[in-house]
Design goal:
Largest sheet: 2 strands, antiparallel
Radius of gyration: 31 Å
Structural class: mainly alpha
Strand content: under 5%
Strand order of the largest sheet: 1-2
Length: about 240
């Protein structure tokens, strides 16, 4: 259907063009571009592989020049920001682009109109995004299947518990948030809780230093870039610290 609409537009432009031609001094056909509508001008520009962005007088001038001097030459689609932004929108499940027709997508950004083969590029990109999502889903399923089939032991290869699932991890987050690491050495802090004693002194000291660095970095980036995840992390730690 889209192809029929595009062909119809092209025929309309061509018909209008034939009805608005005259002979110049050299005997060549010269189109009365000013009499054409914007959609017809854009159709002619696409046929010539020229950019279609701009006002009517710019489109007319571009056709008269017969070159791309009437507008900036776009980057190759594969390396263009237009493609990157379009892919980002396709990956966003909340983007309105998923409910838009091809022509509305093309008109939503002037950069898209600079590519005569945009319809093909758009279809290719949608297929690429679908394939990427499928691969990610398959990887997630495989990873979960492997995790269930190969549960890790309670202790790691060095003989002490895994830090990421141990209660000591959240306890240390609260202690660092309360600046306990500034009131005592890591060895002294280790002696304040039996959960900490499940880890060797040198390992626990490294965990203290990492948690201090993590919370400092989270505060910096939450201020610098307003990262939602980091702000949530700090709020969660603060709530646990105030319990």
């Amino acid at each position: 259907m889209i192809a029929r609409l595009q062909n119809s537009t092209g025929r309309s432009a061509g018909s209008a063009a034939n009805n608005n031609t005259a002979k110049n001094e050299d005997g060549d056909d010269q189109m009365d571009l000013e009499a054409l509508k914007v959609d017809q001008l854009k159709s002619l520009l696409r046929q010539k592989g020229l950019p279609v962005s701009g006002r009517k007088h710019e489109l007319v001038q571009r056709l008269k020049n017969g070159s791309k001097k009437g507008g900036p030459k776009p980057k190759a689609w594969q390396h263009s920001d237009a493609k990157k932004d379009l892919k980002r929108a396709l990956l966003d499940p909340t983007s309105s682009i998923h409910n838009m027709s091809l022509e509305n997508v093309r008109r939503s950004d002037d950069r898209f109109g600079q590519y005569p083969n945009f319809a093909k590029y758009y279809d290719d990109l949608k297929r690429q995004v679908r394939e990427e999502k499928l691969r990610v889903h398959q990887d997630d399923v495989a990873a979960e299947k492997y995790r269930r089939s190969n549960p890790r032991s309670h202790l790691n290869q060095r003989g002490y518990p895994h830090w990421d699932t141990h209660p000591a991890k959240k306890l240390l987050e609260v202690d660092v948030a309360n600046n306990m690491h500034m009131k005592m050495t890591p060895i002294q802090l280790r002696g304040t809780n039996n959960a900490y004693k499940d880890f060797p002194p040198d390992v626990f000291a490294k965990r203290v230093n990492r948690e201090v660095s993590k919370q400092k970095a989270a505060q910096f980036w939450a201020f610098k870039r307003n990262k939602r995840g980091m702000k949530n992390y700090l709020r969660e730690v603060s709530e646990r610290a105030n319990r």
